[in-house]
Sequence to fold (852 residues):
Amino acid sequence: MKSATSTVARVATVVVPAVFLSLFFVFPAATVVATGLGADGIGALGDLAGSSRQRNILWFTVWQAAISTALTVLVAFPAASLVARLPERRRRLVRAMVTVPFVLPTVVVAGAFEGLFQRLGLDSGTIRLRHTVWAILLAHVFFNYAVVVRTVGSFWAGLDSRLEDQARVLGATRWRTFREVTLPRLRPAVWSASAIVFLFSFTSFGIVLILGGPHRATLETEIYRYAVTRTNLTTAAALATVQLVAVSAMVVMTTRLERRRGVVTRSPRRPAGTIPGRWIAANVTVAAVLLAAPIATLLERSLANNGGYGFDHYRALGHRVRQLPAPATTALWNSLVFAVVATAIAVLIGGLASLVVVHGRHGLARIFDLGLTLPLGTSAVTIGFGILIALDQPPVDLRTSWWIIPIAHALVGTAFVVRTMVPVLRSIDPHLREAAAVLGAPPGRVRREIDLPIGLRGLVVGAGFAFAVSLGEFGATSFLPRRPENLTAPIALFRLLSTPGDLLRGQAMALAVVLMVMVASAVLLIESFRGGSEGSL
Amino acid sequence: MSLSIQHLTVRFAGTTALDDLALDVCDGERLALLGPSGCGKSTLLRVIAGLEPHAHGTVKLDGQSLDGVEPHMRPFGLMFQDHALFPHRNVAENVAFGLRMQKVPRQTCTARVDQMLELVGLAGYGDRDIVTLSGGEAQRVALARALAPSPRVLLLDEPLGSLDRGLRDRLVDDLPGVLAETATTAIHVTHDHDEAFAIGDRVAVMHAGSIEQVSTPQDLWANPVSSTVARFLGHSNLIETADGIEMWRSDAARIDPQGELRGVVSRRHFRGQQYEVTVTLNDGRDARFWLVDPPALGETISLSLDRTKVRLLLR
Fold:
């Protein structure tokens, strides 16, 4: 006996996210592929395959991602061990701190590194970092440090240390124990983190565009150059198709790895097989310099003017400059409004979709799970490009609509909401629902009394991430039509940064600082709310 | 007859968890359901609660079939081994949950919660957070929560299994009192025969998805119907004879130089009041008895058997 309202609710739970995703993700992505594999597209693909420049770009995209991944794992691994051995409360603090760089807008990070190179005199001369591959690699390590520390660290903290004790008692040295007992057990987490870092580095856009300079190109920046600078949509679509295929393969692989990681049981005991303290201290110092130096320089640069320090650059944000259609403060306000709207959409769609992933029938749940992870892995560039070419004619012409930006942002945000909600909902002991049912709660009431209050924490964390991501979103937004009322803070920052000369540098740095503070507060707020749950991102 | 189960069959992907099972539970009775792990006793509870579908058979309450009745519409309470307390609600809110589902007025509800907490010895714990409770306290809260809506039948799924020995013994002492005070019909699942004997008015021994024997603890101990039941209750002297299997209770033998059983002491454990002695009989079989002051290890022994403590079992 199911009432009509509960049937409506059940259908809406599936239909609302399905329609949203089909219209704003699947349809644009399909349009990209259709264009890329269309008659002109195949020709363009052929030209691309024949061009040594394009082959070099593809090769560069792959190897910079591989090196970025290896470097990140090397640099962050000891910190993961440190996080694992910290007591729960301090572990959360460290996790929150390393997460700030991860969610900082790419444009802000690019600006920070530009500022750092300028300050240290590395922007020109014999040792030049600006516009080199080193700049890209450094920035990728900066970004993804948190992924490795959090994924490996949380996993490590849950390993049973009695196995190490056993190995030591059986005569293994500390190092031998680490190599033969701890490391093999950490492998799933390391692989899983590596896969994510590789994916992020592979699809990195703002960093490569700004820090790589005009001569370094990856698939992402090449799609942008063809689509936006040269308005050659066919070639851009062909490139985006290659990108989509590569990314889909990687996302499927990553979810596989993650599933394997999920099998291990957690124990509250003291962490297993830790690394000697001195080595960790040295490594963490290096990491702290790496993470803190760009941010510190950013602050210093934003305050420096004519040999002294002051708030002139911040005051200048209120005035319109020739390079921007509106003052930077207007852009900041726009970004804030977009972020609120995008978060609301992401919470609604992501919340419903999470319920389908966890409680839906098997096949449906699998489709939703994958369909929602794809936008997270799919580069923002492909999302923006897809919306640009797919939603530009009736019946769905959103190109000139204000809504296009929050919707694009919400696509990425939805994936974050789902990724934080699903583990929380999954971790709810089925006995709780059964106990509620036996105590007289009908199915809908069980959702309301058990799943909702417990899942709320995951929902808030996901919403915070969605908010932070929207504030800093650059890749997708850069493809969408530019109008004064659509100017977001990251786009404004990009324009200021790409203006040659020092005139607007200070103002760019000031804008970057404001944006950074907004995002960082959102993240720190989330972390204080997250409590004991250890999500995967 | 309060709860009546007939021809109940449950299958999981090829294996039969419950096989044509029958069981009756009377009003106000405490039935202990005893069996090794994997015998289907938890499945039986879940079927009664409506959490598990069954292939055949009926579960009836006061003659009414419960087929198709959703779990939340059944007047039963269920207590899990892991307690399954709601972590986002405090003690009082947990106990009040079932009452809220019945739309009991707030004042009545508060009074009932206090009464329940007092009953389980946790008066004043209402505002406590679930995570601050010890294992025994959590178990008592779960009991209070299950009893608060006055279920017709309380189903207890190894509720003491996760507790350490001392705590368990205390709760085994307390539980029958609480159930008697509230006149609650209960089915108590356990794999421990001491616990089953202490709690059950009757004990049902379950094996491979069906009930082997239902009786009072005393009768069950003295007269097990099969070697499976005998072995599960701890009887170890099951001797093959021409007529069937003879069960010699471990208190059936007495040291007697003229006794008919002769052998050698092959194992000997001091258990406080008595020794637990394994005698290798002259025909090569081993038998285990409780004896006072037995001969040393390796020495010969002769015993006489009290035939009133010997039973012939079905093969």
User: Anything to note?
Assistant: Residues 230 and 273 of chain B are 24 Å apart (CA to CA). Helices of chain B lie at 41-49, 91-101, 106-119, 135-147, 165-181, 193-199, 217-222, 227-232.
